[in-house]
Design goal:
single chain, alpha+beta, about 50% helix
């Protein structure tokens, strides 16, 4: 159950949601986990601030209200056979997220080109150990 809490909290953190922003959450799991989730529902809701109620079912088709899942983010746990859906559409600014991701992408590209330039210098080969060369090439 704590893994579900971790996923919900990580998702909120990933999208920069504050504690006061309470997205809806759906937990989909096979019957054995569904029972456990139902028994731990209050604890999950308390540890991972979300909307007034976490929806728990064995499949999305078994939910009372069918959500538009294009507006949700999902984290799948195939080894456990469950998915955690968090409704983020109402809480994120798509334009701002695209800008943030673009900035991050440019920064990574810049770091990659600097590393590639560093590796190609003849002096690099002479003064760096094989271990460091492998580590830098893996980056």
């Amino acid at each position: 159950m704590l893994e579900a809490v971790k996923i919900i909290r990580s998702t909120k953190n990933l999208y920069n949601l504050t504690k006061s922003q309470l997205p809806e959450v759906i937990l989909i799991a096979d019957a054995s986990y569904t029972k456990d989730f139902q028994e731990s529902k209050q604890l999950i809701e308390m540890l991972s601030p979300c909307s007034s109620e976490i929806h728990i079912a064995t499949s999305v088709d078994n939910l009372a209200v069918k959500p538009n899942l294009k507006e949700w983010t999902v984290t799948e746990m195939p080894q456990k056979g469950w998915q955690v859906y968090v409704h983020i559409k109402d809480y994120i600014d798509v334009a701002r997220e695209k800008e943030r991701i673009g900035t991050k992408k440019k920064k990574v590209a810049s770091q990659m080109s600097k590393l590639e330039a560093k590796i190609l210098k003849p002096s690099y080969a002479n003064r760096v150990s094989e271990e460091d060369k492998v580590r830098d090439s893996d980056k």
